[in-house]
Protein backbone atom coordinates (compact mmCIF):
# COMPACT_ATOMS: atom_id res chain seq x y z
CA UNK A 1 0.00 0.00 0.00
CA UNK A 2 3.02 2.38 -0.46
CA UNK A 3 1.28 3.67 -3.56
CA UNK A 4 -1.88 4.44 -1.66
CA UNK A 5 0.04 6.38 0.97
CA UNK A 6 1.63 8.57 -1.63
CA UNK A 7 -1.68 9.51 -3.17
CA UNK A 8 -3.02 10.44 0.16
CA UNK A 9 -0.11 12.70 0.93
CA UNK A 10 -0.39 14.22 -2.50
CA UNK A 11 -4.04 14.89 -2.02
CA UNK A 12 -3.43 16.25 1.38
CA UNK A 13 -0.77 18.54 -0.02
CA UNK A 14 -3.11 19.71 -2.74
CA UNK A 15 -5.84 20.37 -0.25
CA UNK A 16 -3.42 22.15 1.99
CA UNK A 17 -2.16 24.23 -0.86
CA UNK A 18 -5.69 25.11 -1.97
CA UNK A 19 -6.58 25.85 1.63
CA UNK A 20 -3.61 28.16 2.03
CA UNK A 21 -4.42 29.94 -1.23
CA UNK A 22 -8.07 30.26 -0.24
CA UNK A 23 -7.18 31.62 3.15
CA UNK A 24 -4.62 33.98 1.70
CA UNK A 25 -7.09 35.28 -0.87
CA UNK A 26 -9.76 35.68 1.74
CA UNK A 27 -7.40 37.50 4.05
CA UNK A 28 -6.31 39.85 1.25
CA UNK A 29 -9.91 40.73 0.40
CA UNK A 30 -10.87 41.25 3.99
CA UNK A 31 -7.80 43.42 4.49
CA UNK A 32 -8.60 45.46 1.41
CA UNK A 33 -12.19 45.92 2.57
CA UNK A 34 -10.92 46.95 6.00
CA UNK A 35 -8.64 49.52 4.51
CA UNK A 36 -11.41 50.90 2.31
CA UNK A 37 -13.78 51.11 5.25
CA UNK A 38 -11.12 52.75 7.41
CA UNK A 39 -10.43 55.37 4.71
CA UNK A 40 -14.13 56.04 4.29
CA UNK A 41 -14.67 56.44 8.02
CA UNK A 42 -11.66 58.77 8.28
CA UNK A 43 -12.94 60.89 5.42
CA UNK A 44 -16.35 60.94 7.04
CA UNK A 45 -14.90 62.03 10.35
CA UNK A 46 -12.89 64.74 8.64
CA UNK A 47 -16.01 65.98 6.89
CA UNK A 48 -17.95 65.92 10.15
CA UNK A 49 -15.21 67.97 11.73
CA UNK A 50 -15.55 70.52 8.92
CA UNK A 51 -19.29 70.55 9.38
CA UNK A 52 -18.89 71.13 13.10
CA UNK A 53 -16.38 73.95 12.58
CA UNK A 54 -18.52 75.61 9.93
CA UNK A 55 -21.64 75.19 12.05
CA UNK A 56 -19.89 76.93 14.90
CA UNK A 57 -18.88 79.80 12.61
CA UNK A 58 -22.42 79.97 11.24
CA UNK A 59 -23.85 80.15 14.74
CA UNK A 60 -21.39 82.88 15.56
CA UNK A 61 -22.32 84.76 12.38
CA UNK A 62 -26.00 84.47 13.21
CA UNK A 63 -25.41 85.75 16.72
CA UNK A 64 -23.49 88.69 15.31
CA UNK A 65 -26.27 89.36 12.80
CA UNK A 66 -28.78 89.41 15.63
CA UNK A 67 -26.59 91.87 17.52
CA UNK A 68 -26.28 93.96 14.35
CA UNK A 69 -30.05 94.03 14.04
CA UNK A 70 -30.40 95.06 17.66
CA UNK A 71 -27.83 97.79 17.16
CA UNK A 72 -29.52 98.86 13.94
CA UNK A 73 -32.86 99.15 15.74
CA UNK A 74 -31.24 101.16 18.52
CA UNK A 75 -29.55 103.52 16.06
CA UNK A 76 -32.76 103.85 14.04
CA UNK A 77 -34.61 104.70 17.23
CA UNK A 78 -32.02 107.37 17.99
CA UNK A 79 -32.30 108.70 14.45
CA UNK A 80 -36.10 108.69 14.62
CA UNK A 81 -35.97 110.51 17.92
CA UNK A 82 -33.59 113.02 16.39
CA UNK A 83 -35.94 113.42 13.42
CA UNK A 84 -38.89 113.98 15.75
CA UNK A 85 -36.85 116.48 17.72
CA UNK A 86 -35.87 118.23 14.49
CA UNK A 87 -39.47 118.28 13.27
CA UNK A 88 -40.64 119.70 16.59
CA UNK A 89 -37.95 122.37 16.41
CA UNK A 90 -39.00 123.19 12.85
CA UNK A 91 -42.61 123.56 13.98
CA UNK A 92 -41.49 125.65 16.93
CA UNK A 93 -39.37 127.82 14.64
CA UNK A 94 -42.20 128.22 12.14
CA UNK A 95 -44.65 129.12 14.88
CA UNK A 96 -42.21 131.54 16.44
CA UNK A 97 -41.44 133.07 13.05
CA UNK A 98 -45.12 133.68 12.41
CA UNK A 99 -45.45 135.09 15.91
CA UNK A 100 -42.38 137.28 15.42
CA UNK A 101 -43.62 138.51 12.03
CA UNK A 102 -47.08 139.34 13.34
CA UNK A 103 -45.57 141.00 16.41
CA UNK A 104 -43.17 142.93 14.17
CA UNK A 105 -46.09 144.01 11.99
CA UNK A 106 -47.95 145.09 15.09
CA UNK A 107 -44.87 147.01 16.26
CA UNK A 108 -44.45 148.63 12.85
CA UNK A 109 -48.15 149.48 12.76
CA UNK A 110 -47.94 150.95 16.25
CA UNK A 111 -44.85 152.94 15.35
CA UNK A 112 -46.55 154.19 12.18
CA UNK A 113 -49.61 155.02 14.27
CA UNK A 114 -47.41 156.96 16.68
CA UNK A 115 -46.05 159.00 13.78
CA UNK A 116 -49.49 159.62 12.28
CA UNK A 117 -51.18 160.50 15.57
CA UNK A 118 -48.23 162.69 16.52
CA UNK A 119 -48.51 164.56 13.19
CA UNK A 120 -52.26 164.94 13.62
CA UNK A 121 -51.77 166.09 17.19
CA UNK A 122 -49.23 168.71 16.11
CA UNK A 123 -51.66 170.08 13.50
CA UNK A 124 -54.62 169.98 15.87
CA UNK A 125 -52.55 171.80 18.48
CA UNK A 126 -51.63 174.51 15.99
CA UNK A 127 -55.27 174.77 14.92
CA UNK A 128 -56.31 175.14 18.55
CA UNK A 129 -53.75 177.89 19.15
CA UNK A 130 -54.92 179.68 16.00
CA UNK A 131 -58.57 179.28 16.99
CA UNK A 132 -57.86 180.84 20.37
CA UNK A 133 -56.23 183.76 18.51
CA UNK A 134 -59.31 183.95 16.20
CA UNK A 135 -56.96 183.52 13.22
CA UNK A 136 -59.23 181.65 10.78
CA UNK A 137 -56.56 181.50 8.07
CA UNK A 138 -54.07 179.88 10.40
CA UNK A 139 -56.73 177.42 11.56
CA UNK A 140 -57.41 176.39 7.97
CA UNK A 141 -53.69 176.12 7.21
CA UNK A 142 -53.09 174.00 10.29
CA UNK A 143 -56.00 171.66 9.46
CA UNK A 144 -54.92 171.42 5.82
CA UNK A 145 -51.39 170.45 6.83
CA UNK A 146 -52.62 167.36 8.64
CA UNK A 147 -55.63 166.30 6.52
CA UNK A 148 -54.06 162.98 5.61
CA UNK A 149 -52.52 162.27 9.01
CA UNK A 150 -55.72 163.02 10.93
CA UNK A 151 -57.87 160.99 8.54
CA UNK A 152 -55.52 158.04 9.15
CA UNK A 153 -55.39 158.76 12.87
CA UNK A 154 -59.18 158.57 13.09
CA UNK A 155 -59.15 155.14 11.41
CA UNK A 156 -59.00 151.95 13.35
CA UNK A 157 -59.02 148.20 13.15
CA UNK A 158 -62.81 147.85 12.83
CA UNK A 159 -65.18 149.54 10.44
CA UNK A 160 -64.58 152.07 7.69
CA UNK A 161 -62.01 154.84 7.88
CA UNK A 162 -63.54 158.34 7.93
CA UNK A 163 -63.03 160.49 4.87
CA UNK A 164 -62.00 163.52 6.94
CA UNK A 165 -60.19 163.57 10.28
CA UNK A 166 -62.01 166.35 12.11
CA UNK A 167 -65.54 167.07 13.26
CA UNK A 168 -67.76 167.37 10.18
CA UNK A 169 -71.45 166.90 11.11
CA UNK A 170 -74.43 166.93 8.73
CA UNK A 171 -72.41 166.61 5.54
CA UNK A 172 -73.75 167.70 2.17
CA UNK A 173 -71.81 166.86 -1.01
CA UNK A 174 -72.10 169.11 -4.07
CA UNK A 175 -70.94 167.73 -7.42
CA UNK A 176 -69.84 170.33 -9.97
CA UNK A 177 -68.73 168.58 -13.13
CA UNK A 178 -65.97 166.24 -11.99
CA UNK A 179 -65.31 168.22 -8.81
CA UNK A 180 -66.88 167.57 -5.44
CA UNK A 181 -67.28 169.79 -2.40
CA UNK A 182 -68.52 168.86 1.04
CA UNK A 183 -70.27 171.29 3.40
CA UNK A 184 -70.70 170.68 7.12
CA UNK A 185 -72.04 172.11 10.37
CA UNK A 186 -69.93 174.66 12.25
CA UNK A 187 -66.78 173.24 13.85
CA UNK A 188 -63.05 173.90 13.85
CA UNK A 189 -63.03 174.30 10.07
CA UNK A 190 -65.38 177.27 10.14
CA UNK A 191 -68.93 178.51 10.61
CA UNK A 192 -69.84 176.63 7.44
CA UNK A 193 -67.11 174.12 6.80
CA UNK A 194 -66.26 173.35 3.20
CA UNK A 195 -63.96 170.62 1.92
CA UNK A 196 -62.73 169.91 -1.61
CA UNK A 197 -62.20 166.42 -2.97
CA UNK A 198 -58.60 165.90 -4.10
CA UNK A 199 -57.37 163.78 -6.98
CA UNK A 200 -56.59 160.85 -4.67
CA UNK A 201 -60.17 160.87 -3.34
CA UNK A 202 -59.34 162.43 0.03
CA UNK A 203 -60.79 165.71 1.27
CA UNK A 204 -58.93 168.89 2.19
CA UNK A 205 -60.41 171.81 4.06
CA UNK A 206 -61.04 175.08 2.27
CA UNK A 207 -61.89 176.94 5.46
CA UNK A 208 -65.11 178.83 6.10
CA UNK A 209 -67.57 179.01 3.20
CA UNK A 210 -69.77 181.65 4.82
CA UNK A 211 -68.41 185.09 4.08
CA UNK A 212 -71.10 187.19 5.71
CA UNK A 213 -73.66 186.57 8.38
CA UNK A 214 -77.09 188.22 8.03
CA UNK A 215 -77.68 191.05 10.42
CA UNK A 216 -80.58 189.22 12.11
CA UNK A 217 -78.51 186.11 12.94
CA UNK A 218 -76.21 185.21 15.82
CA UNK A 219 -72.99 183.29 15.70
CA UNK A 220 -72.42 179.79 17.10
CA UNK A 221 -75.29 177.53 16.01
CA UNK A 222 -74.83 177.29 12.26
CA UNK A 223 -75.87 173.87 11.08
CA UNK A 224 -76.46 171.56 8.15
CA UNK A 225 -75.54 173.67 5.12
CA UNK A 226 -76.56 172.50 1.65
CA UNK A 227 -75.97 174.06 -1.75
CA UNK A 228 -78.06 174.35 -4.90
CA UNK A 229 -76.33 175.15 -8.16
CA UNK A 230 -78.20 177.77 -10.17
CA UNK A 231 -77.34 179.44 -13.43
CA UNK A 232 -74.69 182.03 -12.61
CA UNK A 233 -73.94 180.84 -9.10
CA UNK A 234 -74.75 178.81 -6.05
CA UNK A 235 -77.31 179.19 -3.30
CA UNK A 236 -76.44 177.82 0.11
CA UNK A 237 -79.19 177.00 2.61
CA UNK A 238 -78.20 176.65 6.24
CA UNK A 239 -79.57 176.71 9.74
CA UNK A 240 -78.70 179.70 11.86
CA UNK A 241 -79.92 181.24 15.11
CA UNK A 242 -82.27 184.21 14.89
CA UNK A 243 -80.90 186.64 17.44
CA UNK A 244 -84.19 188.25 18.35
CA UNK A 245 -86.14 185.06 19.06
CA UNK A 246 -83.40 182.52 19.75
CA UNK A 247 -85.07 180.22 17.25
CA UNK A 248 -83.12 178.13 14.80
CA UNK A 249 -84.11 179.31 11.33
CA UNK A 250 -83.21 178.62 7.74
CA UNK A 251 -81.45 181.23 5.68
CA UNK A 252 -79.75 181.31 2.30
CA UNK A 253 -76.55 182.86 0.99
CA UNK A 254 -75.18 183.14 -2.51
CA UNK A 255 -71.80 182.83 -4.16
CA UNK A 256 -70.35 182.62 -7.64
CA UNK A 257 -67.93 179.93 -6.53
CA UNK A 258 -68.95 176.58 -5.05
CA UNK A 259 -66.52 177.01 -2.13
CA UNK A 260 -67.70 180.56 -1.38
CA UNK A 261 -67.48 182.98 0.14
CA UNK A 262 -71.28 182.81 0.41
CA UNK A 263 -72.89 186.13 1.26
CA UNK A 264 -76.18 186.36 3.12
CA UNK A 265 -77.80 189.71 2.64
CA UNK A 266 -81.26 188.58 3.68
CA UNK A 267 -83.31 190.83 5.92
CA UNK A 268 -85.17 187.92 7.53
CA UNK A 269 -85.02 184.14 7.71
CA UNK A 270 -86.30 182.07 4.80
CA UNK A 271 -88.14 179.73 7.18
CA UNK A 272 -88.46 179.48 10.95
CA UNK A 273 -91.69 177.61 11.57
CA UNK A 274 -93.54 178.14 14.82
CA UNK A 275 -90.59 177.06 16.91
CA UNK A 276 -87.48 175.98 14.99
CA UNK A 277 -86.67 175.09 11.40
CA UNK A 278 -83.50 173.15 10.72
CA UNK A 279 -81.68 170.90 8.24
CA UNK A 280 -82.50 172.46 4.84
CA UNK A 281 -81.68 170.45 1.73
CA UNK A 282 -82.49 171.58 -1.83
CA UNK A 283 -83.72 168.91 -4.26
CA UNK A 284 -84.27 169.07 -8.00
CA UNK A 285 -87.46 167.43 -9.15
CA UNK A 286 -87.61 165.36 -12.33
CA UNK A 287 -88.57 168.49 -14.31
CA UNK A 288 -85.55 170.37 -12.94
CA UNK A 289 -87.55 172.65 -10.63
CA UNK A 290 -86.10 173.01 -7.14
CA UNK A 291 -87.78 172.30 -3.85
CA UNK A 292 -86.47 172.65 -0.34
CA UNK A 293 -86.70 169.93 2.31
CA UNK A 294 -86.32 170.89 5.96
CA UNK A 295 -87.52 170.01 9.44
CA UNK A 296 -90.05 171.76 11.62
CA UNK A 297 -89.12 170.94 15.21
CA UNK A 298 -91.21 170.27 18.33
CA UNK A 299 -92.74 168.04 17.17
CA UNK A 300 -90.39 167.19 14.37
CA UNK A 301 -91.84 166.93 10.88
CA UNK A 302 -90.02 166.77 7.58
CA UNK A 303 -91.37 169.41 5.21
CA UNK A 304 -91.09 170.15 1.49
CA UNK A 305 -91.86 173.33 -0.43
CA UNK A 306 -91.16 174.44 -4.00
CA UNK A 307 -88.46 177.07 -4.52
CA UNK A 308 -88.39 179.81 -7.09
CA UNK A 309 -86.14 179.17 -10.06
CA UNK A 310 -83.38 181.33 -8.56
CA UNK A 311 -83.64 179.39 -5.28
CA UNK A 312 -83.93 182.51 -3.18
CA UNK A 313 -87.58 182.26 -2.21
CA UNK A 314 -90.46 179.84 -1.93
CA UNK A 315 -93.28 179.44 -4.41
CA UNK A 316 -96.35 177.38 -3.62
CA UNK A 317 -97.35 175.70 -0.41
CA UNK A 318 -95.39 173.45 1.90
CA UNK A 319 -96.21 169.79 2.40
CA UNK A 320 -95.59 167.48 5.36
CA UNK A 321 -93.60 164.48 4.21
CA UNK A 322 -92.82 162.52 7.36
CA UNK A 323 -93.45 162.49 11.08
CA UNK A 324 -92.10 159.98 13.59
CA UNK A 325 -94.35 156.92 13.88
CA UNK A 326 -92.18 153.96 14.90
CA UNK A 327 -90.24 153.13 18.02
CA UNK A 328 -86.66 153.36 16.74
CA UNK A 329 -87.31 156.99 15.70
CA UNK A 330 -87.97 157.97 19.34
CA UNK A 331 -90.23 160.87 18.30
CA UNK A 332 -87.58 162.52 16.19
CA UNK A 333 -87.05 162.67 12.43
CA UNK A 334 -84.65 165.15 10.87
CA UNK A 335 -81.82 165.62 8.34
CA UNK A 336 -83.88 164.92 5.19
CA UNK A 337 -82.32 164.11 1.85
CA UNK A 338 -83.90 162.72 -1.28
CA UNK A 339 -83.05 160.52 -4.22
CA UNK A 340 -85.48 161.31 -7.07
CA UNK A 341 -86.30 158.39 -9.38
CA UNK A 342 -88.63 158.07 -12.38
CA UNK A 343 -91.12 156.28 -10.13
CA UNK A 344 -91.10 158.78 -7.25
CA UNK A 345 -88.46 159.54 -4.64
CA UNK A 346 -86.64 157.96 -1.73
CA UNK A 347 -86.64 160.16 1.34
CA UNK A 348 -83.61 159.52 3.58
CA UNK A 349 -83.78 160.88 7.12
CA UNK A 350 -82.20 160.53 10.55
CA UNK A 351 -84.01 159.66 13.75
CA UNK A 352 -83.60 159.25 17.52
CA UNK A 353 -81.06 161.12 19.69
CA UNK A 354 -78.28 162.69 17.61
CA UNK A 355 -75.98 162.66 20.65
CA UNK A 356 -76.08 158.89 21.17
CA UNK A 357 -75.44 155.48 19.65
CA UNK A 358 -79.19 155.22 19.00
CA UNK A 359 -79.12 157.80 16.20
CA UNK A 360 -79.80 156.05 12.89
CA UNK A 361 -80.65 156.59 9.24
CA UNK A 362 -83.97 155.54 7.70
CA UNK A 363 -85.58 155.68 4.27
CA UNK A 364 -89.17 155.80 3.01
CA UNK A 365 -90.65 155.92 -0.45
CA UNK A 366 -92.57 158.96 -1.65
CA UNK A 367 -94.88 159.14 -4.61
CA UNK A 368 -93.10 162.36 -5.64
CA UNK A 369 -90.57 164.75 -4.05
CA UNK A 370 -93.53 166.67 -2.66
CA UNK A 371 -95.09 163.51 -1.20
CA UNK A 372 -97.03 161.72 -0.07
CA UNK A 373 -94.57 159.40 1.64
CA UNK A 374 -95.06 156.03 3.31
CA UNK A 375 -94.42 155.53 7.02
CA UNK A 376 -91.01 154.38 8.18
CA UNK A 377 -90.32 150.68 8.54
CA UNK A 378 -89.68 148.78 11.73
CA UNK A 379 -85.89 149.09 11.50
CA UNK A 380 -83.48 151.77 10.29
CA UNK A 381 -81.55 151.53 7.07
CA UNK A 382 -78.31 152.04 8.98
CA UNK A 383 -77.72 151.99 12.73
CA UNK A 384 -74.58 151.78 14.83
CA UNK A 385 -72.30 149.00 13.63
CA UNK A 386 -68.66 148.01 14.02
CA UNK A 387 -66.95 151.17 15.28
CA UNK A 388 -69.58 153.41 13.67
CA UNK A 389 -71.78 154.91 16.37
CA UNK A 390 -74.91 156.99 15.84
CA UNK A 391 -74.80 157.43 12.05
CA UNK A 392 -76.94 160.30 10.76
CA UNK A 393 -77.12 163.56 8.86
CA UNK A 394 -77.20 161.58 5.62
CA UNK A 395 -77.17 163.35 2.28
CA UNK A 396 -77.57 161.76 -1.15
CA UNK A 397 -75.21 162.77 -3.92
CA UNK A 398 -74.44 161.50 -7.38
CA UNK A 399 -70.90 160.78 -8.59
CA UNK A 400 -71.81 159.79 -12.14
CA UNK A 401 -75.27 159.13 -13.61
CA UNK A 402 -76.76 156.23 -11.67
CA UNK A 403 -73.89 156.10 -9.15
CA UNK A 404 -75.51 157.40 -5.96
CA UNK A 405 -73.77 157.75 -2.62
CA UNK A 406 -74.90 158.70 0.85
CA UNK A 407 -72.60 161.00 2.82
CA UNK A 408 -73.23 160.80 6.56
CA UNK A 409 -71.58 161.56 9.86
CA UNK A 410 -71.00 159.21 12.78
CA UNK A 411 -69.12 159.05 16.03
CA UNK A 412 -66.34 156.52 16.13
CA UNK A 413 -66.20 154.19 19.11
CA UNK A 414 -65.42 154.76 21.89
CA UNK A 415 -65.74 158.55 21.50
CA UNK A 416 -69.51 158.95 21.41
CA UNK A 417 -71.43 162.10 22.27
CA UNK A 418 -70.65 165.83 22.16
CA UNK A 419 -67.99 167.19 22.23
CA UNK A 420 -66.48 164.15 20.48
CA UNK A 421 -66.14 164.55 16.72
CA UNK A 422 -68.79 163.40 14.29
CA UNK A 423 -66.72 162.17 11.36
CA UNK A 424 -67.49 162.13 7.65
CA UNK A 425 -68.23 158.80 5.95
CA UNK A 426 -69.94 157.83 2.72
CA UNK A 427 -71.45 154.66 1.33
CA UNK A 428 -72.81 153.50 -2.00
CA UNK A 429 -76.58 153.32 -2.54
CA UNK A 430 -77.65 150.22 -4.49
CA UNK A 431 -81.14 150.42 -6.02
CA UNK A 432 -80.97 147.10 -7.86
CA UNK A 433 -83.39 145.38 -5.50
CA UNK A 434 -86.04 148.05 -5.91
CA UNK A 435 -85.28 149.62 -2.50
CA UNK A 436 -82.13 151.46 -1.44
CA UNK A 437 -79.46 149.21 0.04
CA UNK A 438 -76.23 150.66 1.47
CA UNK A 439 -73.29 148.61 0.24
CA UNK A 440 -70.02 149.79 1.59
CA UNK B 1 -4.87 6.51 5.86
CA UNK B 2 -8.07 7.04 7.49
CA UNK B 3 -6.39 9.52 9.80
CA UNK B 4 -5.01 11.48 6.87
CA UNK B 5 -8.41 11.65 5.29
CA UNK B 6 -9.83 12.86 8.47
CA UNK B 7 -7.18 15.50 8.77
CA UNK B 8 -7.82 16.58 5.20
CA UNK B 9 -11.52 16.80 5.77
CA UNK B 10 -10.89 18.76 8.96
CA UNK B 11 -8.59 21.13 7.14
CA UNK B 12 -11.19 21.57 4.41
CA UNK B 13 -13.88 22.27 6.97
CA UNK B 14 -11.68 24.72 8.82
CA UNK B 15 -10.59 26.47 5.63
CA UNK B 16 -14.14 26.68 4.34
CA UNK B 17 -15.21 28.09 7.69
CA UNK B 18 -12.45 30.67 7.63
CA UNK B 19 -13.13 31.59 4.02
CA UNK B 20 -16.83 31.89 4.81
CA UNK B 21 -16.14 34.07 7.81
CA UNK B 22 -13.76 36.14 5.72
CA UNK B 23 -16.42 36.62 3.06
CA UNK B 24 -18.99 37.62 5.63
CA UNK B 25 -16.57 40.01 7.25
CA UNK B 26 -15.59 41.53 3.91
CA UNK B 27 -19.21 42.07 3.00
CA UNK B 28 -19.78 43.74 6.33
CA UNK B 29 -16.78 46.00 5.86
CA UNK B 30 -17.96 46.94 2.37
CA UNK B 31 -21.35 47.82 3.82
CA UNK B 32 -19.74 49.95 6.51
CA UNK B 33 -17.60 51.70 3.88
CA UNK B 34 -20.72 52.43 1.80
CA UNK B 35 -22.50 53.81 4.82
CA UNK B 36 -19.52 55.99 5.67
CA UNK B 37 -19.34 57.28 2.10
CA UNK B 38 -23.05 58.03 2.07
CA UNK B 39 -22.73 59.80 5.39
CA UNK B 40 -19.82 61.80 4.01
CA UNK B 41 -21.84 62.81 0.99
CA UNK B 42 -24.64 63.91 3.31
CA UNK B 43 -22.12 65.81 5.42
CA UNK B 44 -20.78 67.50 2.30
CA UNK B 45 -24.32 68.66 1.40
CA UNK B 46 -24.83 69.83 4.96
CA UNK B 47 -21.51 71.66 4.85
CA UNK B 48 -22.55 73.36 1.62
CA UNK B 49 -25.81 74.49 3.15
CA UNK B 50 -24.10 75.76 6.26
CA UNK B 51 -21.48 77.60 4.21
CA UNK B 52 -24.25 79.16 2.11
CA UNK B 53 -25.98 80.22 5.33
CA UNK B 54 -22.71 81.55 6.63
CA UNK B 55 -22.17 83.61 3.51
CA UNK B 56 -25.73 84.91 3.68
CA UNK B 57 -25.38 85.80 7.34
CA UNK B 58 -22.06 87.51 6.71
CA UNK B 59 -23.52 89.44 3.80
CA UNK B 60 -26.60 90.42 5.81
CA UNK B 61 -24.44 91.42 8.71
CA UNK B 62 -22.35 93.61 6.42
CA UNK B 63 -25.44 95.20 4.96
CA UNK B 64 -26.92 95.83 8.40
CA UNK B 65 -23.65 97.32 9.62
CA UNK B 66 -23.46 99.53 6.57
CA UNK B 67 -27.05 100.60 7.03
CA UNK B 68 -26.45 101.21 10.72
CA UNK B 69 -23.44 103.34 9.92
CA UNK B 70 -25.47 105.39 7.47
CA UNK B 71 -28.25 105.70 10.01
CA UNK B 72 -25.77 106.83 12.62
CA UNK B 73 -24.42 109.49 10.28
CA UNK B 74 -27.95 110.60 9.46
CA UNK B 75 -28.72 110.75 13.14
CA UNK B 76 -25.65 112.89 13.80
CA UNK B 77 -26.64 115.18 10.95
CA UNK B 78 -30.14 115.50 12.38
CA UNK B 79 -28.72 116.35 15.77
CA UNK B 80 -26.50 118.96 14.15
CA UNK B 81 -29.48 120.45 12.28
CA UNK B 82 -31.49 120.45 15.48
CA UNK B 83 -28.74 122.34 17.25
CA UNK B 84 -28.66 124.86 14.39
CA UNK B 85 -32.42 125.25 14.67
CA UNK B 86 -32.12 125.78 18.41
CA UNK B 87 -29.84 128.69 17.67
CA UNK B 88 -32.30 130.11 15.17
CA UNK B 89 -35.15 129.62 17.62
CA UNK B 90 -33.28 131.56 20.26
CA UNK B 91 -32.65 134.35 17.76
CA UNK B 92 -36.28 134.48 16.59
CA UNK B 93 -37.51 134.41 20.20
CA UNK B 94 -35.30 137.36 20.98
CA UNK B 95 -36.55 139.22 17.89
CA UNK B 96 -40.16 138.49 18.80
CA UNK B 97 -39.64 139.58 22.39
CA UNK B 98 -37.94 142.78 21.25
CA UNK B 99 -40.80 143.46 18.84
CA UNK B 100 -43.37 142.77 21.55
CA UNK B 101 -41.68 145.17 23.94
CA UNK B 102 -41.43 147.82 21.23
CA UNK B 103 -45.08 147.30 20.28
CA UNK B 104 -46.09 147.53 23.93
CA UNK B 105 -44.16 150.75 24.42
CA UNK B 106 -45.49 152.19 21.15
CA UNK B 107 -49.00 151.13 22.16
CA UNK B 108 -48.66 153.03 25.41
CA UNK B 109 -47.41 156.07 23.55
CA UNK B 110 -50.27 155.79 21.06
CA UNK B 111 -52.72 155.64 23.95
CA UNK B 112 -51.33 158.83 25.48
CA UNK B 113 -51.16 160.54 22.08
CA UNK B 114 -54.76 159.58 21.31
CA UNK B 115 -55.95 160.71 24.72
CA UNK B 116 -54.26 164.06 24.16
CA UNK B 117 -55.53 164.28 20.56
CA UNK B 118 -59.06 163.40 21.59
CA UNK B 119 -58.98 166.13 24.24
CA UNK B 120 -57.64 168.70 21.79
CA UNK B 121 -60.26 167.71 19.19
CA UNK B 122 -63.02 168.01 21.79
CA UNK B 123 -61.67 171.41 22.84
CA UNK B 124 -61.51 172.48 19.18
CA UNK B 125 -65.14 171.45 18.73
CA UNK B 126 -66.20 173.29 21.89
CA UNK B 127 -64.26 176.49 21.28
CA UNK B 128 -65.33 176.66 17.63
CA UNK B 129 -69.02 176.81 18.67
CA UNK B 130 -68.48 179.13 21.62
CA UNK B 131 -68.79 176.43 24.27
CA UNK B 132 -66.91 177.74 27.36
CA UNK B 133 -65.98 174.20 28.45
CA UNK B 134 -62.99 174.05 26.10
CA UNK B 135 -60.33 175.00 28.68
CA UNK B 136 -61.68 172.43 31.15
CA UNK B 137 -61.47 169.76 28.47
CA UNK B 138 -57.85 170.71 27.83
CA UNK B 139 -57.06 170.55 31.54
CA UNK B 140 -58.41 166.99 31.72
CA UNK B 141 -55.86 165.80 29.13
CA UNK B 142 -52.99 168.01 30.20
CA UNK B 143 -51.03 165.17 31.84
CA UNK B 144 -51.38 162.95 28.77
CA UNK B 145 -50.35 165.85 26.55
CA UNK B 146 -47.36 166.65 28.73
CA UNK B 147 -46.31 163.00 28.64
CA UNK B 148 -46.07 163.10 24.85
CA UNK B 149 -44.53 166.55 24.77
CA UNK B 150 -47.58 168.27 23.27
Summarize this structure as a short list of keywords or feature phrases:
heterodimer, A: 440 residues, alpha+beta, four-stranded antiparallel beta sheet, 3 helices, 20 strands, 32% strand, rod-shaped, B: 150 residues, mainly alpha
Overall average pLDDT of chain B: 93
Mean pLDDT of chain A: 93
User: What characteristic shape of chain A results from the CA principal axes?
Assistant: rod-shaped
Tell me the overall shape of chain B: rod-shaped
Largest sheet entry of chain B: none
Strand order of the largest sheet of chain A: 1-2-3-4
Largest sheet of chain A: 4 strands, antiparallel
Q: What Rg of chain A do the Cα atoms give?
A: 54 Å
Number of strands of chain B: 0
Oligomer: heterodimer
Strand content of chain A: 25-35%
Report the span from N to C terminus of chain A. Answer: 165 Å
Structural class of chain B: mainly alpha
Q: What is the H/E order of chain A?
A: HHHEEEEEEEEEEEEEEEEEEEE
Question: Which residue ranges of chain B are poorly predicted, with pLDDT under 50 across at least 5 consecutive positions?
Answer: none
Distance between the termini of chain B: 168 Å
Amino acid sequence: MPGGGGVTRRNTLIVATVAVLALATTAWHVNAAWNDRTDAVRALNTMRGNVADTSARFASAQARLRQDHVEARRVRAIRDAAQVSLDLRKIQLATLSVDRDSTSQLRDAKNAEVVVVQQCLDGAGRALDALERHDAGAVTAALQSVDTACRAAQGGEAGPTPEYGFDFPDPYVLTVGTDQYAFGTNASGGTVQVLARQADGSWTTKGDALGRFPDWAGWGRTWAPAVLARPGGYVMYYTVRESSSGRQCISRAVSTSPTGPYVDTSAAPLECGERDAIDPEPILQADGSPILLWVHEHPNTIMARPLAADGLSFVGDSQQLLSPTVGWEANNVEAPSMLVTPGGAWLFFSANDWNSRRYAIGVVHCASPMGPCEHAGAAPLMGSHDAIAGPGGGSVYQVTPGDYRLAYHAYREPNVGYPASRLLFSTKIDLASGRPVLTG
Amino acid sequence: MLAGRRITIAIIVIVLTLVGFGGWRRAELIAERSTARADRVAAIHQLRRIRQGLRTAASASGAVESDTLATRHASEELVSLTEDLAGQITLVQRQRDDAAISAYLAGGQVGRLRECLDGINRALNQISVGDPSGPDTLNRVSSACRAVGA
